[in-house]
Amino acid sequence: MHFEFEHLGTTTAFELSEGQHLLGGGPDDHVRLEALPPGFLMLRIEGPRLTVKAARTFTVNEVLVPPGVPRLVLPGEIVGLPEEMRLKVLQAPHAAERAVGTLAVLKHLLTDGDGQVPCRAATLTCLIGLDVGRTFPLAEAKTDLGRGTHVDFRLRDRAVSRSHARILREDSAFTLVDLDSPNGIYLNGRRVKGSAPLADGDVLELGQTLLRFQAAVEESPASLESAAEPEPPLDTPPRSPVAVTREKEQGGCWFIGLGVATALAGVLVTYALVS
What we know:
Blueprint: E1 2-7, E2 10-15, E3 19-24, E4 31-32, E5 41-46, E6 49-54, E7 58-60, E8 63-65, E9 71-72, E10 78-81, E11 85-89, H1 107-111, E12 123-128, E13 135-137, E14 142-146, E15 153-154, E16 165-170, E17 173-178, E18 185-187, E19 190-191, E20 195-197, E21 203-206, E22 209-214, H2 221-228, H3 241-274
Parallel strand pairs: 3-4, 14-15
Antiparallel strand pairs: 1-2, 1-11, 3-5, 5-6, 6-9, 7-8, 7-10, 10-11, 12-13, 12-22, 14-16, 16-17, 17-20, 18-19, 18-21, 21-22
């Protein structure tokens, strides 16, 4: 695998074979760069795949990578090192070789970003590729992914097969299925053999496209109960003592009037009988 190391305006090209290589400024480092701390960066090369891991925080294309976390790196990406040093991974001579995925193992960097609005339905969001930024809801029991015109989620990636992969939904569980695509499908950096379950934050790699799976957001029973609970009636404001006294006075007048009317009726009846 071919690399370019840049420091203070000077670029140095070098090549590493398959295996593990320690890059740093110590005497025991396989690739010795005086300006780096000893044993700073571990490079693991497996065919066309490159994984890097550092003892301290570094960057890949200006995205921070925590110490001790493996990071898959694409050809053409730049690894940022201390003291403004840069390590660039060069494109493989054979363009037909599969470009490995990136960001696949950094799920927390992909799911904890600000401004992400949770969706009630499960979704696939394109992270890298020609369709970057697209979001596709997984509402059906079966969703086919690929480059063909007949699939549900069509990708404009020439490295993706016409029918590349399938996602099956059963209630809240989702399963990723490889449709025997020549380039295969990778889940969090590992190739899927047949099928594999999906979890929230998983990253799918098809050709040179990365997709993030986001599980459906379920409402808690407490929120549903609070939404269904009717609002309590408004409390009747307390009446003032003056109003209470006035009501009592009005009630007393009503009884007095009734007594006067009854007495008057009795007088009239007596007068009628005497006459």
